[in-house]
Give the backbone structure.
Amino acid sequence: RSLQRLHKTQPLTLPAAYTIHNALISLEFPSTFSLATTFALFKAYGIPSISVLLVRTNQLAGPPLVSSKRYADTGALLLEAVLNAPGSERSTAAIARINWLHDRYRKGDRSGIRDEDMLYTLSLFALEPMRWVRDLEWRELSEVEACAVGTLWRYYGEALKVPMRLLPGYERGWRDGGEWIRELEVWSRGYEDRFMVPSESNHVLAEATMRIILYKAPKCMHGFGRKVFATIMGEKLREAMLYVSLAPLLPYQFAMVTSILTNWVL
């Protein structure tokens, strides 16, 4: 509450944003933030320019042992960067490692990582937890909490060399993290509308990810697990990943599953 009062009189500082964000992850909505962050990585595969590159490198679509290690490595680096304080040794080392991994593919041509795809992926990590909290939890994020998320992820984006110049407000600047994340959401939705389209490479990555996530589940549960995925995806992402024939769960079934996942499993 003291931070909320302070935010009304002056911009939220980066340390204060980290404190609020860390409380959301570890105390307020740990399961929902965890599931949403996992889904954010998956959702990025619905953009063909992203999925084609990942399939070509054979890191996430290769043999199960290789792809599962790559998936785990990505998660570990993100956790190190986000859960440790900005500027700390562990967070800085994780960001440096991610930049090193990306630099080899940022060639400035169509064969490498596109600037727009970097910004879109960042937008998913910033926005998906907020959307999941809004849709599944007992309350949505407050204005100051949303501002904290925006402040922190803008910092991470700049540290990860994500080109903010693609956003309309880049030249004039943003008043705070809240204004930045609202503008990012508008840009992200527009990007999805234009570039989230059906592609075989999207499907290849989706199948590889499902195999990783369902690996420890009994085979008799795989069909149900795929239906859970189909429901979470939504119609546009299902179409982009060539899962049009994969029927989603009924609303009451999905409500039951999400309740179990957010309150008991994680």
